[in-house]
Amino acid sequence: MSFKITIKSSQHAFSSDGDETILEAALREGFDLPYGCRNGACGSCKGKIIEGNVDHGKYDHSALSASEIASGMTLFCCAKPLSDLLVECREVKAARDIQVRILPCRVQKMTLLGKDTMVLNLRLPANERLQFLAGQYIDILMKDGKRRSFSLANAPHDDDLLELHIRNVAGGSFTQHVFTEMKEKDILRFEGPLGTFSLQEDSEKPIILVASGTGFAPIKSMVEHALRIGIERRMTLYWGANALADLYMLDLPAKWAQEHGNFSFIPVLSAPLPEDNWTGRTGFVHQAVMDDFENLANHQVYACGSPIMVQAANRDFTTQRNLPPEEFFSDAFTFSPKQGL
To answer: Do 72 and 49 reside in the same domain of the chain?
Structure first.
């Protein structure tokens, strides 16, 4: 049976579907409510039932007391509607609404894609989940006190495992560790989520996504999130790399384009190898956008990857294609102690 759930302050409404908790229903329909563990242990998702009835489910009594239940409080990650509900809770509207935490994680899986890109899947402790916005990143905390920043490639709704895309950079101490020493089941510590690079969901403008190399990681998170919540705006992804092997998940955006009429994918190679037998677009990835769009005045652009690409895109799109500066959103991978080795 389906029930309608309304958030009092915003009047946002969504429906539960079958046996869903309030939190599961909200996240499924694209409404970001606070959460931490998603199993009734931390209390981060606590909210008030103003009208209606719920089954409180199984939870840790240290996170929700009997007196709180008597006053109408419940844990949205455990509570399931028994009727239509009017609830009172905080909504996550920006990065500042999400708590930044330091957490341990275990290397669950390591997958080498292309010639030099490692996909790491990280599992948090059993009683933890990481809430984040599509496009944000985490800092891996190294034993020597240094940090290495990597974008989250999984979408927020797909948070069983965290996904990082790591390129093998010559001289990078952490990347060398990943490619030569790291093993599955190793333990890491990280801080996050961090950053303000995220999808602006309140706009109706068409979206142009520009990625170079592993800048595809946060773009992947954004696209999967947008498709999940049913965003109907036109999205066009330009993914640039040197050679064909560097487009390490080529089949995935091609699949998105095949399955969703509002999504298009244009791969671009700057230095294809003879063995690539490449017949697609060549040159600089941001120039491909310039060639296809004479006017970007009514668009939003999300760019991620090398600083040179991001800087060139920002300069040329705003000065030559009329893109409003406030509609250019970016995250540059600087390959420094702050970002990405």
So the answer is: yes
